[in-house]
Design a protein that fits this description.
By secondary structure, the protein is an alpha+beta fold. It has helices spanning about 10-25, 30-45, 55-80, 105-120, 160-175, 175-185, 195-210, 210-215, 220-230, 240-255, 265-275, and strands at about 5-10, 125, 135-140, 145-150, 155, 190, 235, 295. The longest helix has 26 residues, at about 55-80. It is elongated. The N and C termini lie close together (about 10 Å).
């Protein structure tokens, strides 16, 4: 087995923030406080800050790198002309490593997709995908590959469970409330009052997405406590508890990076491909991505 060598995502994101702060002429604390204040002001207006798309990030990095190369060319011209004169100091070139190169949008998309592949295709997944369990591995072509490590909390799903989760994912992505409710009951969800609105909200927030419209602006934990108070849960789909855990954790990273996501919409092509491959319906052209090019397991 080959050991993966790279930087833990948690550390890489801190370094990335330091680079953004340096470009703004601020300390990390100043930059962080300024960004948090911007978010607070937007929330007062009912606006959720959403960061750049993957394409916009790539364009931004190319712009920064172009400016860097232009600046280095100017410095080279100086260094090999006036820089040779007595008493003159050579100007230092700027390395590409000084640029904030992490594409937050692509990072969140790739992490969500690769874990969806583990859940729905492999049937084995890491139930603790925090940034300390992800490596950023440099590649020769200049981009980064994700390394998923520390599988200490592995959950296995049976074929039947995978197929049921595929159906739940598709129903959530399509916002088919009736199907979601029926499938959740099949999965084992039971509550005291059988409140179908509560069943749908539980599935939506557990496996798909969370936003102020769904949770009323409450933290997920408080929202789930409210659900429990309104319609006490008697039984949960126990085999899907860890699926909900990774969905919440990956979405939490997305929120921290201002990249909110619908996990169900991201996983839908995978779910359709699985069902189609077993002759159980699904989109005839799901076009799921292969994760092997950008993810490696240790």
């Amino acid at each position: 087995m080959e050991e993966l060598k790279g930087e833990k995502l948690a550390n890489a994101l801190k370094s990335d923030m330091a680079k953004h702060a340096a470009r703004a002429g601020e300390t990390v604390d100043q930059f962080k406080a300024e960004q948090e204040e911007k978010v607070r002001q937007l929330r007062k207006k009912g606006i959720v800050k959403v960061g750049p798309s993957a394409k916009e990030y790539d364009q931004y990095v190319r712009l920064l790198d172009g400016e860097r190369k232009l600046g280095n060319a100017s410095k080279m011209a100086y260094n090999y002309s006036l820089g040779w004169l007595p008493g003159m100091e050579w100007k230092q070139y700027v390395d590409r490593d000084t640029l904030p190169l992490i594409n937050h949008a692509k990072l969140v998309d790739d992490l969500i997709y690769s874990h969806g592949w583990e859940v729905l295709v492999d049937g084995y997944f890491n139930g603790d995908p925090h940034p300390g369990n992800v490596l950023l591995i440099p590649r020769s072509k200049g981009d980064m590959q994700l390394g998923l490590i520390d599988y200490g909390q592995v959950k296995a799903l049976s074929k039947e469970d995978r197929l049921l989760m595929c159906k739940i994912v598709i129903a959530l992505a399509d916002e088919n409330k009736a199907d979601v409710i029926q499938l959740m009951k099949e999965a084992g969800y039971k509550s005291q009052n059988r409140n179908e609105d509560i069943i749908y909200l539980y599935a939506k927030v557990s496996y798909d997405e969370d936003n102020d419209e769904l949770t009323g602006g409450k933290h997920i934990q408080l929202f789930m406590e409210d659900i429990q108070a309104k319609d006490p849960i008697e039984a949960l789909p126990k085999d899907f508890i860890m699926v909900g855990r990774i969905s919440v954790m990956l979405r939490g990273l997305g929120h921290a990076l201002h990249q909110p996501r619908s996990v169900a919409k991201a996983w839908k092509p995978i779910a359709e491909s699985v069902l189609l491959g077993l002759g159980l319906g699904g989109n005839p052209n799901p076009n799921p991505r292969d994760c092997s090019d950008y993810t490696r397991l240790f």
